[in-house]
Amino acid sequence: MNVIRAEWTKLRTTPGPAWLLLATAAVSVATGVALSAVDTRLALSGVYVGQIPLAVLSVVIISSEYSTGLIRTTLTAVPSRWPVLVAKALVLTAAVAVTGSLAVLATLLITGSGQAFLSQASARAVFHLILIALLSLGTASLTRDSAVAIGTVLALLYLPPLLTQLITNPVLRRLLDQFAPMTAHPAILALWSATALSAGTLMVRRRDT
Amino acid sequence: MTDATIEVDGLHKRYGAATALRGMTFTARPGRVTGFVGPNGAGKSTTMRIILGLHRADAGRALVGGRPYRSLRHPLRHLGALLDASALHPARSGRNHLVWLAQSQGLGRSRVDEVLAQVGLESAARRAAGGYSLGMRQRLGIAAALLADPPVVMLDEPFNGMDPEGIVWLRDFLRALAGRQRAVLVSSHLMTELQGMADQVVVVGRGRVIADCAVADLIASASGDRLRVRTSATSLAAAALTSTGAQVTETDQDLLSVRGLPVERAVSVLAAAGVPFSELAPHRATLEEAYFDLTRDAVDYRSGASS
Amino acid sequence: MRRILSAEWTKFRSVPGWIRGSAVAALLIALFPITGLGGGPPEQAAPIPIGPGGGPVVDAYYFVHRDLTGDGRITVRVAGLDGVGWAKAGLIASGGESPGSRYATIMVTGGHGVRMQHDYLHDRAGPEPAARWLRLTRSGDTITGEASADGSAWRRIDAIELPEATRIGLFVAAPQQTSGLGSAPGVATAEFGRPELTGDWSGDWTGHQRGARTATFSGYPTGASGGFTETGDGFTVTGAGDLAPATRADLPVAAAAGDLLLGTFPALIVIVVVATLMITTEFRYALIRTTLSADHRRGRLLLGKALVVGGVTFGTSLAAAALTLPLWLWVVRRLGLYVFPAPPGVLLRASAGTAALLALTAVLALSVGTILRRSAAAVTAVVVAVVLPYLVALIPFLPSAVGQWLTRVTPAAALGVQQTLTRPPQVDSVYSVAYGYYPLSPWAGLAVLCAYTAATFTLAAFLLHRRDA
Q1: 3-state DSSP call for residue C123?
Q2: Distance between CA atoms of residues C115 and C124, nearest Å
Q3: How far apart are CA C123 and CA C146, in angstroms?
Q4: What are the sequence ranges of the domains in chain B?
Q5: Of the candidates C31, C271, C394, C357, which has an alpha carbon nearest to the alpha carbon of residue A158?
Q6: Does residue C190 belong to the interface with chain A, where contact is any CB pair within 8 Å?
Q7: Angle made by CA atoms C77, C79, C80, in degrees to the nearest 5
Q8: Distance CA C24, CA C312 (A)
Q9: Which residue, B121, B195, B277, C445, shows the most beta carbons closer than 10 Å to its own?
Q10: Which DSSP letter does residue C42 get?
C-alpha cells in the first residue's frame, strides 16, 4: 500500500504526467469528434490517436527513473522490486481509467449520443487505453531507454496495419488483424500487456541497476 | 606565457528568480594553482560555465588569455576544462571519448594515448565508460582537459569521488602543471583538499568573491596573534597567563589557546610562575579554519546536499 | 567543418547501439518484404493482358465487326452515346484476337469529346470535340482516323502503322465507375448509323464481348449484359470494359514495385530512435557542455551531426534498397505474384528516394530532439508526423480527399517518392494512397519533407544557439 502511495506521489508531483493525460483526453476527444463527422459510429475511434501521448506517459514513468538514476533510490526503498512495477501499473490504471472515461463521456456528449456512455463500446475504448498504457509500461521496463521503448510501442501499434497492405493472403491478413495490438480484441491486447508487464517485472528483478 | 590567465570581471547572472552571480571578479595567474572555493550554490559552476561560453553572463566578462572563450579557434588549446566527470556517454569507450575531442581540435590520436598514459588510464581506455568508477571518470575528464596541452586548466570539483591515492596523485599532478607555468583553477567546496596545493584562494559565497589572497596570507590572518600552549597543569598556566591581561581558552585537554601575548612574554611568564609546559608556539590556522571564518555569513545552504 | 565532422563521426561510430541501429534499419529495408510472402500469391483465375508496351492493360469491349482484305474504309455516325466520362463508342481496327494485342480506334466519349487512341497508351483529342461522324481508312499498313461534324468536311486526327489489322468494326466500352475509394462496373449503350464500307469486306456483322475472361475486365453491372441489335438504319451496341493501361483498381491482386519498400516504416522508427538519441543523450549526460566547450559554433555542431546521421542513413538505406529491390521483384514474380512493371530508372529513383526520405527523417528527428531535449517526446513527434498521416490516408472509409490532402501537406508526402505507378490521363480510376498513387510527384513529395526538415533544423539551431547549455 505504501508503495502505491509513493508511486502516486511521484506521478502527482511532476507536471509531465498531468499534461500528457490531458493531451490523451484532448486528442481522443478531438479526433473522435472529427471522425464522427464522417460516420457517427467512429466517435470512439479517437482513442487510437489519443493513445499516443498516453504511451509516452507510460514509457516515461519508468524510463525517466532510469535516466536520472532515481531507480536506484526506488529499488533501495523496495528491495523485492516487483511491487514497484505493480504499484506503478495500478496507479497508471487508475489515472487512465478516470481520464479515459472522462474523454469518452466528453466525446459522446459533444457528438450528441451521451446516453451511449454506458455501452460496451465505451467500456472497450477505456479498456483499450488502459491496456495500451500497461503495454507501454512493460515495454519501458524491459528496454529502460525511453527512445527505444516508445519506438517499440509505436512500431507494435502502427506497423501491423501497414503490413496488412502488403500481405495478399486473406487468412494471414485476418490473423494479423486479430493479433496486432491496435486491432485485436481487448482480450488479446490484455495478453500483450500482461506479457510485456511480466517480462518487464522479471527483468527489473533480475537485472543489476 | 602571457595567455595563461583567466580573468573574470564583474559577472552577473540570474536564472529566473534566482541570482547566481553578483559581481564575481578574480584572476587566475600562470604558475599558480588557484583554489576556487565556496559552499554549494556559491556560483562556482556558473562562473566556470560562463568562462567556457556555455552560459551567457547578464553583465561582466570572462577572458581566457585576454580573449573571450567563444572567440578562440581551437579553444581546448587555450583552456582545458573538467566540469562534470560523469558527462560521458555510457556506451562509448573512454578512448573514443578522447578521440572525438582530439578530432574537434585537429589533434592526432597519438596525443590521446599520451594523455591516457599521463592519467594512468591505458588499461581501461577501451572499455565502455558506463562501467567506470567515479575516480576513473575523473581521470578521464582530466585527460580530456589536458588533451591539447593548454596553458590554462580549469577543474570543477576534481577530487570528488577520488580515493586517497588518487587525491595525492592529482595534487602532485596539478602542482607539476603550475610548475610548468600553467594557470590552474581548481574549484572545491572542501578547503582541506586545497591545503598544501593551492597558492592562491578565491573564496566565494552568494555569487561574489569574499576573499582573494595568497594561501599564506589567509592562514596568517586567520591565525591572528594566538599561541598554543600544551601543559599538564592547565589551570595553573591559565591563571598565570590571564594575570598578564591575555585571553585564555582551553581548546582541548592539555591545550590552551592564548590571545594577546607575544611568544617570548608567554615563555617568561610561565617560567616565572613555575608552570611546566611541553609546547608553546604561535598558532597556525588550517585553511579550513580560515575558510569557515570567512564564509560564516555567506552560506546559502548550510546543510545542503553535496552535488 | 571537417573537424566537427570527424569528431561527430567518431561519436556516432563509438556507440555500439547506434551502429547496430543503423544496421538493423538497413536489414529491415532489405528483409521486411519476407513478411508479405507468407501463404503465397492469391488465386488468380484469369490471365492478365499485357499490352505491346509491356504493361498490363484493360482489353475489353463489345465488338461488332467484319473482316477487311486490302485497302478500305469504314464511316459511321454515332447518333447517341449513353455513358459518362471515358465511356467509348466508335470504330476500331483490331490487330489480333489475343488479349493485349495492338489496335487503333477513333471514338466518341462520354465526357472527353472525339479521340483517336491506339495501343492502350496513346491518346489524341480530335480538333472538333462535338464531331459525331467517324471514319477509319486502311491504306497499306497505315490506319488513318478522321472525324467530321457534318459527314462531309473531314479532319484527320492521326495515322498509325498497324499492318496486322484485319478485323474492323464498331465498339462500345465503359470503364469502371469510381466513387471515393470504391469502384463498380460500368456500362454504356451507343446508337450507330449504318456503317458505309468501301473495299473488300467479307463476312456478316458479328458481335462478341472481347476480353470477357481477362483479369482486368470487371464485368457488367448486375442485370446488364453486352450485345448489339441491328435497327432499321444502324446498330444499337451495349458494352463494358475499356481499352487502356490497367491501374491498380483494375488489378487489385497485383503488387506495385514500391510495395516492396515496406521495410521503410520499421526502418524509419529505428532511425528516428538513433537520430534522436544522438542529441538527447548529449543533454541527458551533460555531454553537450564538453562538446560546446570544444567548439562553440553551435549551428555547425548541429550541421555536423545532421550530416553524419543523414549520410550514414542515406548510404546504408540506399545500399539496402537498391540491392534488394530488384532481387525481391524477381523472387515475388517467380512466386507467381503479378507486379506492375517499372523501368530500372524508376526503381532506382524509388530506392534513392527512400534513402533520402530516411536521411531527411533522421535530420528531422535530430532537430526535434534538439528542440524538445527529451527522447520519448521527440521520437513520438517525428513518427507521428511522418507515419500517422500515411496510415490515416490508408483508412478506407475516410473521404479520399482527406488522404490526398494529408499526403500533400504533411511530411508523409515524402512517401510519394516510392511510387512506381503512373496515372494515365485517359483513365479515371481509384488513385488512392493505398493503391500506391500519391497526389504529388515523387520529388515534389520529397521536397515537402525537405521543407519541414529545413524549418525544424533552423529552429533547432536557433534554440541551441540561444539557450544556455
Answers
A1: strand
A2: 6
A3: 14
A4: 6-220+289-295, 225-284
A5: C394
A6: no
A7: 135
A8: 13
A9: C445
A10: P
Given CA atoms C406, C411, C413, C418 in this order, what sign does their dihedral have?
negative
Q: Are B225 and B259 in contact (CB under 8 A)?
A: yes
Cα–Cα distance for residue pair A135/A152, rounded to 1 Å: 10
Residue C383: its H or E element: helix C375-394
Check: CB of residue B172 under 8 Å from CB of residue B198.
no
Tell me the C-alpha distance between C170 and C151, whole Å: 17
Q: Name the amino acid, one letter, at B178.
A: A
Q: Cα separation of B204 and B298, whole Å? A: 8
Interval C222-230 mean pLDDT: 90
Yes or no, beta carbons of A146 and C375 under 8 Å apart: yes
Max Cα distance, chain A (Å): 53
Segment 84-113 of chain B within 8 Å of chain C by CB: 84, 86-93, 96-97, 99-101, 103-106
Q: Is C265 in contact with A39 (Cβ distance < 8 A)?
A: no
Q: Which of B41, B36, B64, B75 is nearest to B197 (CA)?
A: B36
Domain that includes residue A183, residue range: 2-206
Contact B104 C289 (CB under 8 A): no
Q: What is the mean pLDDT of chain B?
A: 86
Q: Between vectors from CA B11 to CA B9 and to CA B12, what angle results, nearest 5°? A: 160
* Cβ proximity of C317 and C362 under 8 Å: no
C374 shares contact with chain A (CB less than 8 Å): yes
Three cell numbers, residue A29: 476527444
Does C287 contact chain A (CB < 8 Å)? no
Which chains, if any, share at least 3 CB pairs under 8 A with chain C? A, B
ipTM for the predicted complex comes to 0.90
Determine the Cα–Cα distance for residues C105 and C147; give it in Å rounded to an integer: 12
How many residues are listed for chain A in this entry?
209
A73-77, C139-143, C170-174: which has the minimum mean pLDDT?
A: A73-77
Quick: pLDDT tens for C379-431: 999 999 999 999 888 887 777 788 889 999 999 999 999 999 988 999 988 88
Q: How many domains does chain A have?
A: 1
Average of per-residue pLDDT across B243-266 = 81
Secondary structure (3-state) at C271? helix
| pLDDT tens, position by position, B54-91 | 888 999 999 999 999 988 888 999 999 999 888 999 99
Grid coordinates representing B298 are 555567506
Cβ neighbour number for residue B43 with a 10 Å cutoff = 24
Half-sphere exposure of C30 (CA within 13 A, CB side): 14
CATH topology of domain C57-245: Jelly Rolls (2.60.120)
To the nearest whole Å, the CA of C18 is away from the closest chain B CA by 10
Interface probe with B: pick from C289, C290, C375, most Cβ of B within 10 Å: C290
Q: Given pLDDT bands bounded at 50, 70 and 90, which one contains residue B233?
A: confident
CATH ID of B6-220+289-295, from 3.90.1150.10, 3.40.50.300, 1.10.10.1800, 3.20.20.70? 3.40.50.300
Which CATH code for domain B225-284? 3.30.70.100
Whether A176 contacts chain C with CB within 8 A = no
